[in-house]
Amino acid sequence: MNNARLRIGMILCGGRSLRMQVDKATLQLGGRTFLQRVIDALQPTCEHIVLVKRGPEQELPTYESTVSIEEIFDEHSDQGPVESLRIGLKYASQRPLGSAKLVPTGDASAMVFVSGCDTPLLLPQLVTGIFDRLTNYETAVPTINGKLYPLCAAYSTSSCDRVEDFYNLGKRRLTELVRSLNSNLLLEEDLKKFDPQLQSLLNINTPEEFRKLLQIDDAQ
Asked: Of 19, 110, 171, 206, which residue is most buried, by most CB within 10 angstroms?
């Protein structure tokens, strides 16, 4: 890998999928669950993958991976994705990760690509491109027409303390967190170098959105 810092994938799986009314991780597209598709997009670039669940009782669909995967869970229930991000970054910064190698570069922090499990069209080349743009920032986040995509973004574990402080202040909005960090905001023209259709940013939240996705898939 062209950047010697450890690269980790984190998938937030703990949402209750209230609008979809079924666990989005279990939805299938092209014969693979949404969760499996996100894993498949992360594993070419990441040396380890972390699945963050809402609690130990949550069951995930069966998955496969060519890299090591570990399941962890939120410490506090129903606190939204900021809680899952906080827990995942803490884990990534403190825990030895299987056989992954960390090469000294003057920066001991790891890089973590964070995704929900509802982005079934995520492309590996976009993951790599965003990782490469993290460099000396705390996070690298896509932004399209002023809209931030903090769940298709890379975070440095050096941001752990600031994320913890943000959480302890009772703040729960990911976009507010991104604006409080030293963030590299990635614009549309840059993102299209890796994903011309920006399909990686499409997240599926409702049955209607899922039906439309299936129609597009059938037409291809």
From this structure: 110
